[in-house]
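Sample A.
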Amino acid sequence: MTQEREPTRTAVRPEAPDLSVVVPAYNERHRLTPTLDALTDYLSADEPRWGSWEIVVADDGSTDGTGDLVTAREDPRLHLVTGEGNRGKGHALRLGVAASRGRRVLVTDADLATPIEELERLDKALGEGNCAAIGSRSAPGATIGARQHRLRELLGRAGNVVIRRTALPGIRDTQCGFKLFDGDRAREAYAASRVNGWGIDVEVLRHLRRAGLSVAEVPVRWSHRPGSKVGPLDYARVLTEITRIAARSLRPADVFAPFLFLLMSVALYSGRFFAPAQRYLPDSLRDQNQWEWFFAVTADNVAHFRNPLFTDLQGFPDGVNLMANTVMPGLSVPLAPLTLAAGPAVTLSLVMTLGLAATAAAWYRLIVKYVVRGRIAAFLGAGLAAFAPPMISHAHAHPNFVVLFMIPLIIDRALRLCAGNRPVRDGVVLGVMAAYQVLLGEEALLLAALGMLLFAAAYAVVRRDAARNAWRPLLRGILIGAAVCLPLIVYPLVWQFAGPQSYTDIEHNPRSFNSPLALLAFAERSWLAGDAETAKALAFNTTEQNAFYGWPLVLLAFAIVVRLWERPLVRALAFTAVAAAFLSLGREFRIPLTGVILPGPWELLADKPLFEAVIESRVAMICAPALGMLLAVAVDRLLVTRHPATRWVGLLGVALALLPLIPAPLRAVDRAEVPPFIADGTWASYVREGESLVPVPLPDPSDAEALHWQTEAGLGFRLPGGYFNGPYGDERVGIYGAEPRFTSNLLRDVRNTGDIPPVEDSWREQARVDLAYWKAGVLVLAPQPNDSALRATVEKLVGGPGKWVGGVWVWDLHEGTRPRATPITLP
């Protein structure tokens, strides 16, 4: 590596000028002469306006005599600095700005594509209190004369988009070579730069932004000049430099936090994560089988170019409206190749694990941006928001309530709208985000909107000045967002609410509300304080333990609110958490330890459109991010307090509140084996085209193992019955599972009771009608509790014994196609 020599100067400048003009140059002999003439003529013509000035030409190892041209002018206000070899524009600018001494520093390209007369605009912006004023070809009011080649223009625009999204949001044009700085700030920023190429503009502006200094983007006149030194590969080099700049500016904590969230998620799913196809989460009840089927059937539809919103593989022959069943097409469709290659069990495992970690990372980013700057406090707050007890309950097998990374992004965009800087752009982005969240989970979006509304109402009360400034751009952005969102989701929503197998409403478990005790008790999966009996008594199943924040956290939150009551954010968060908890109590609630029953607040929303299908206990999930942010505020305050006793007592209280909430890894067991009759494909010789395979009893929400058979068979056969939401009766009221028929009810009752009913001729006739409706090709009875009673009942219904084939009893329903089946004695 050659050693760089000290920059050389052609004159000693004892006094600091008012303005320094820095011009980077590489082989610019032919273009530099008119540029220097224009600069000197303009600055000399109005010396009272610009004061004393100097021009510093930074020669980046030119080989055409560029440096000789500068020294030949013998103007004491014109200076040359040189470095060793050609190292790039960034290196030349770093040398040139370091050699400058002006109170203001103008950096301009050697071709003077932006006329020097535009300095007036930049100087005015600098005089308004900004530390830098940069020329922009993209700001409203900019004028473009001669244009670049179309391809170069497109590449430049694409590069600006990348820069705005990754390194320097808010600035439309970072690469225009005409920038005016406060002199000391410029020398500090360029001295801190590291890149040698074209990306130095981004690095310098980012340095100023991170220092909290204002940068004004000023529209200018600009015309392309022939002889540009920017080559095709330079665009790739700039992107590489931008990546280095962004990576270098990341705080280690901002990288470590998402990584730690991922480790936490993997630990939670450790019982299944490393063998997803062979392990089952028993506390998911039948939901793991259902969600694997959702991913499998969506991938199958995509692979065969069928409508991804409908299938008749379950609920045959009527089918299933998949959009009305929360199949998350926003993930299940793009992940179809993974599902087809690795299987739905792998896809579901990755979605749950990565989705939970991504949700925590998104909350972390939001908290760091708007709530606290301290990374430890933000990590704890985001961890509580994403790994709170209700989230862990849904983590068993409800990806639509675990994959919530879009919710913090939507909140961020809404807060940007409140600032009113770019309501059109932010409104469009909000609309696209909302549309995508609809395809991930509508109920989660509805609950998020409810939480945001509660927070906004409370914050408007405590900060009326902020509300007055924010409501117009927010309303405008929301209207724009709605105009963008609705066309994107109108077809899926019409299909969901008016398509085949749609339904009007659905009745949930009558216990689908929170008891006040559920808000104070510990969750079943709490590592240290879990109480399965209490949790099961207060929630209707293990996947719907939607509160269970524990009394220590509730006490801690109360203490935080009392101590920091003066902060408007704390008051608004407190109202949001309390209101959500109150709404989750349902239509009515009983005061604990008394017989007093009071009207519940949910009665106001229960029968309203959209809310009628919400499980009201889930409203308590809104408390998780609200409590997480309160925790972040408190911890951030404790870590900077000057009173050690207060700090350590406070942190001890935080630890005592959070330790009982740390979840144990989710329970996992070996998966039930698929009978060889299904696994080895024997079923295919019994089921003809257009027929179904009928498990005994039919699959339903209480036993959906047949869905696993179907996915393991590559979705090769159709199933009547099933585990999904569908319509019932003429009013099309929503129910769980297929519309019941006489035979399906009969077989379910036998499975549940073990009693063999007296089968009459009318029952056999009804069974024939039902089997014909299901287009049944074969009845299949796998070993299970009460299988003897089921076998005897089926024999009476079909008029003959079954045959033991591949680990199951089989009744072939094709008359005359096979010898009469006879039972065999099991070994």
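Sample B.
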Amino acid sequence: MEKLKNYIYGEWVEGTGNGMPLYNAVTGEQVAVSDTEGLNFEQALDYGRTVGYKNLSSMTFYDRGEMLKKVALYLLERKKKYYELSYKTGATHADSWVDIEGGFGTFFTYSGLAKRMLPNTPFWVDGETQKISANGTFLGTHILTPSEGVSIQINAYNFPVWGMLEKLSTSLLAGVPSIVKPSPYGSYLTNAVFQDMIESGVLPEGALQLVCGEPGNILDYVQDGDSVLFTGSANTGRKLKSMPSIAGNAVRFNMEADSLNCSILGLDAKPGTPEFDLFIKEVRTEMTTKAGQKCTAIRRIIVPEHLIGDVQNALSKALDQTKIGNPLSRETRMGSLVGKQQYDEVVRKVNILKSETELVYDGKHELIDADYDNGAFMSPKLFLNDKPFEKNISHDVEAFGPVSTLMPYKDAEEAAALAKRGKGSLVGSIISHDEKFIAETSWKMASQHGRIFVLNRDNAKESTGHGSPLPTLMHGGPGRAGGGEEMGGLNGLHFFLQKTAIQGSPDVLTAITKVYQQGAEKKYADKHPFQKYFEDVEVGDSLETAGRTVTDADIVNFSNVSWDHFYAHTDATSLTGTIFDKTVAHGYFILSAAAGLFVSGKKGPVIANYGLENCSFFKPVYAGDTITVYLTAKEKINRGVKGRNIPSGVVKWLVEVVNQREEVVCVATILTLVAKHSPFIDLNVKNVQKILGGLTETTSLNWGKMSPQQMIEHLEHGVLVSLGEPEADKCFTPEEQLEKWQDSLYNHRKMPKDFPAPFLAEDETLLELKHKNLEAAKQSFLDNLKRFSVYYKENSQAEHMNFVFGKLNKEMWELMHKKHFTHHFEQFGLI
């Protein structure tokens, strides 16, 4: 039987013991063996702290975000084999989708957050700068850097893929190397995904290690700077947290434990209402998804006392319709528990619940293409606790399977009180259309819940469900739920980051943070900052504008244009008792006038105004005052661009407006989209002619089989096609892929060297030569390039077919030619 290998200190290592056999939860057949005996855990931790930390922490947040995306794309292409393994854990296709593609989705989400919101530096400036001296020569701020250590991540058996990727999304993005320790059950699936993550070649050396099997004494070797993330039972978590190596050192510990989550049916949600039907559907889903093996599953069903019978009947009928059996059958809606050991544990807990509460539904015991002897199957079980304020087992004991308990309440006060008797939950839901009931109940139960999910007819179509943690929202909960926090958007990174206060002069803080601080030295140059590409803009680049004297006519005209006739701008007789001496210029006029002073009218790399932040007005500006603007590049944010957008970054500019007395009247931060340098040549005919001057009949190729003249005539043919001479009659790219191909014209990725033309047979030559020699071919090519420029000036709306990219307009043809010319000029070493 195959023994799962562990990946430590950069190599795949097999354990030296007999290991633990792992079984198919559906058929009982052995799948693999997990074994960690003989592994040097101390060496593994040291390898992560040294090699892994050095490589990951030196990357920028932006680059780590790009890394997550590349890994997720690599895994997505191989998802079919993960599903085949997931079925062996007892998971249905729907269960597997949540685990597998939900995990990939978490990587994609964090990649997007990083590329939109995090800096292209290995550190992260957190919060605003604090002015801590009267004259502003002494400032303070905070930076976040990767915690210097390794993170050990101990995961539960219910989500072999998502459980790993959910934790790695934040640790890898934060720059902290990790050792993943999945539960042995289902670890063959974790192992397969992990192998592909390593095989992708995207992750730096030492970033990840994998221990498949028993954890042994790995936690004995944690030390200051390390972290432990644990998902599992609260009892085990508390034991780990109290270990001397963890409690006695500065080791960060995060626990996400199972919890007795509840769902509350509102007093208004009577049978026949949309909310009643939604409630039944939601409870059934949470009882049966993953066979109830979810830390967010509904364990306590809190229902108005007069509706207990209605809910019991409706839920029993709904559960009757849930077919149980082999996940490979299309009819199956609920699979098995992950194994016989877990089945025995759930039965033990069910018997404890029976000691105090009544089992009112035990499900149908029919299985599809499976049997109870070999598989770990269990029918859904519904209990009734008729006195939930007296009988406490329902609030204390969790059967981690398709098991839940009904309990009655009288009013919102009681509903919230019952919700809190779980002593800390990951999630509680309220299903109601009564906003007053929802508001009163939610804030009263919030202190004992990590998330509150409200469902009704208004959001049902787009709701993600009671049991679905989302990457952008915190996952965790107080008390029994572990007191930990995971994900939550960028907040999820803070667990892995060290926050450090930085104090110094404006120049020093600018140098450290790479963010311009008011009062730091400005860098003036003849070139307008808006004429610089994103890569060329430097923090501190500045412009001092000419002055503009504000007139009464400006104030009147702005009032008429904006329709802002606020009395302070228009009625001098109403100013008694105000802060104004006379009619004052609008704040937004000052900002608009400032923009008029600092923008460059000439077309350049600045694409668009992207936003405005932190605008403040400090002193009134009256007619007769003269304003001047100081514009300074404050911060640069690299930006991922999708679709048909020009590759660009965001530059934040500090705008300081002063009056004739050099008093600051307005400060704002404006954001602009600034284009990045294109790696492709410009289509300027003189530029192309100069490049072609280096091409001769003897010029050698870097790749491919073309002769120099064939290459020039090939490019000329492309230009003629873009003029409709001849009009291409067919595009060889399938329709469903065409948009993706056209979008690719806008990015800065070069054409692949080995790109096979889809319209040519392998042995077919490109074109028969039509010019007498290379020089004649060059001249004809340049002549047609001139024609291309004139043609699209005269026919700006023209479109012509391309064999690969479909019908293209002027902009697309220009982009295509730039990429195409560059590709072939590099082929012959001309650029």
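B remarks: The chain is about 35% helix and 20% strand. The CA atoms of residues 91 and 335 lie 5 Å apart.
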